[in-house]
Amino acid sequence: MELKRIADEIKEAQNIVLTIHVNSDGDCIGAALALMLILDRYNKKNFSDKIYKMKNVRLVLDDKLPKFMEHFKERALVEYYPNFQMENIDLLIAIDSANIERIGNAAELRKNAKKMINIDHHISNTKYADINYVENVSSTSEIIYRFLDLFDIELDKEIASFLYLGIINDTGNFTHSNVTPETFLISSELIKTGIDNSEITDVLFGVTLGKARLLGEVYRNFEIDKELKFAYYYLSDKKAEELKIGRDETDGMSETLLDLVGIEASLFLKDEKEEKVKGSLRSKSSYDVNEIGMSFGGGGHKKAAGFNTAENPEKVIGKVKEELKKQLTKQ
């Protein structure tokens, strides 16, 4: 019912702004662009002879797009804060953002919005909007897929490409435990449109030279707590500069550590701007890393979570170990 309510709110609105989280990934971008395209089709289907009634839908981001978006012409649809301006916003819709801080300075747009909607799949979501739809599924893109029926829009290749991008991003190309039969059913419908799923996968997961250098560094110098079955690595700004690593080339390192045989939890830490560090936590079956992420003001899912903190890396690693020990003793 809540999704239908959101669809009804969108149908009634004229000026709509979509926004996504900083350090954007394939799911938030894919979900937002897919929704934008669905609403574009809705405009053309219902208001082709009444242009003045067409919805004004825009997508704004308080960050740079990741490098893989260079492969998609639709990147031109994304606008950037603070250069973005719109008065009299009827709806501000945050997509794939577990808390309002995740959308960065774009949160300032709420002051000009009559209503805010939050659509997300993270169980740590703080339900910060006027209307919140949070469901623990593989990805926010899986949720956005349902808007096709709600707006009576036929799935096409362009929409399918972005939904597929989002789903494979958050399922690790269908390798994570968040994959369900429904995820596969939706993905099969997306592939039926003729999308090049192999190309989308290569764009998202292809290994650049910088990432190859980082993989070598991580494999040589990661550390393990054998008792906790916990692998971790900290990437300093100095080391990143030495290896000539771009910001996007660190994605997936926590999964790389978790793939080690015998490891049940992993942490990849890296320096961020403003003297903060960003942590990416992953687990298999025994640990709940969402709880740990939330202890640093972040969160996500039981088996995948993230956070940003001003604490120094050594303290962060120590605190994560303490939390893992607490969970281990309860098992």
TrEMBL record:
Residues 15-167 form the DDH domain. Residues 231-326 form the DHHA1 domain. It comes from the Bacteria. It holds the Pfam family DHH. GO terms for molecular function: nucleic acid binding. SUPFAM superfamilies: DHH phosphoesterases. This is Phosphoesterase RecJ domain protein. The lineage of its organism: Bacteria, Fusobacteriati, Fusobacteriota, Fusobacteriia, Fusobacteriales.
